[in-house]
Write the structure tokens for this entry.
Amino acid sequence: MIMVTIAGIIKKVGTTTKVKTGAWRTFIPTVTDKCKGCKICESFCPDGCIKVNPKTKKAEIDYDFCKGCLICENECPFKAITSKMEDK
Ligand code: SF4
Ligand code: SF4
């Protein structure tokens, strides 16, 4: 018999949405005009801080909470997110 142990279930993303990023972020992403509003970045952001605005149909980043991991940039199928070093 095969036994499978379930270690845990993540019900909500973004516990860090309660903690502002502060000044330590190294990279900062920017959504460009190429955004198609597909929401793929939303589903990958570990902090739940990029959302497609239902009015503009473009992704918007809440920089108070974005950690600069650039997962959104890597996962966007339209290459609509660019990044640069954060100005310190
Ligand atoms: S994955 Fe890219 S195209 Fe899709 S909503 Fe996000 S930024 Fe826009
Ligand atoms: S850089 Fe990371 S934390 Fe910031 S919006 Fe993209 S996926 Fe989310």
